């Protein structure tokens, strides 16, 4: 267990701001596995600038890597209102949970409640029904804040097939273009499991890995295990309070298998470091451990894990991650791992050195 001391400034949302030229926000993917890599060694405070393909030479000896195997689905649907106006629906509840709760009616339709984002939401009211594609009706049950709605989905046959056929990938709002056929491959990790389809955003640190990198890591003796966290759109939700201690983190559905529990326990027993591939894996490890008095256990269910400076890490020893938005919970997480002032200094250096930022951007290793 370890934590980084915090200051009063660490409580302030404004303390997590940095300047980023818009042109450094990656709008398109680079070649997978060929991104740049910034390495921070916390013990020596040394910063190194290299490339992601050098990762096997940079990881701590005997490290266990923990990756998120959730698969992104094209969860964004486009339709029209009765008036002819455009309407957009984004499924927020993980698809497997919706499908598993579905109740089949005698007429062949299946019904299940879920949460979704509807835009524009101004004229939408409870009782409205909207048809998207073929065989899917979204019925509005209750309006929420910031475009979120409780809805009832009515569908026939396979809900996943409807989304895969008619849906669009919900690229992050800072990628200012429509999704393309290329994104179906590039906005997906190579190890995403088909039976774990449920995320509306990619666990982007994993986008840098290739089958060749996985093979090289294995040959060097680095162990690999996986968790599942279905990434929701809440990962892009801004912090809206000036004191971050008042922020309420969105709940996330996770799965930790008995095999992953055993792998992490074995690594900890042997004193080997546990390195999370991405902030989603980090939140899974820490969030589940928080439910079991600091020890990782096999678990399936919801967590609510907000990590910011002063947090005591129970499982995590290091992190592979991308560069995150100013004033975001993800920047707060990496600041908890390495210290806010040090992290902001590193981000300023990354800006000066023309790193590419956010989902399709470059990577960082904190060890």
Topology:
Elements: E1 36-41, E2 46-51, E3 64-68, E4 71-72, E5 76-80, E6 86-91, H1 95-101, E7 103-104, E8 109-119, E9 129-131, E10 136-143, E11 148-156, H2 159-166, H3 183-186, E12 197-199, H4 211-219, E13 223-229, E14 252-256, H5 258-269, E15 274-277, H6 279-291, E16 299-303, E17 318-322, H7 329-338, H8 340-352, E18 363-366
Parallel strand pairs: 1-18, 3-13, 3-15, 4-12, 15-17
Antiparallel strand pairs: 1-2, 5-6, 6-8, 7-8, 8-11, 9-10, 10-11, 13-14, 14-16, 17-18
Helix pairs in contact: 7-8
What is the helical fraction, as a range of percent?
10-25%
CATH superfamily of the largest domain: QueA-like
Low-confidence stretches: none
Mean pLDDT: 95
Please characterize this protein's 3D structure.
- The protein has 2 domains: 8-71 and 183-366, QueA-like, CATH 3.40.1780.10; 75-166, QueA-like (Thrombin, subunit H, Beta Barrel), CATH 2.40.10.240.
- The chain is globular, with a radius of gyration of 21 Å.
- The model has no long low-confidence stretch (mean pLDDT 95).
- The chain is built from 8 helices and 18 strands.
- With 367 residues, it is α/β, with parallel strands linked by helices.
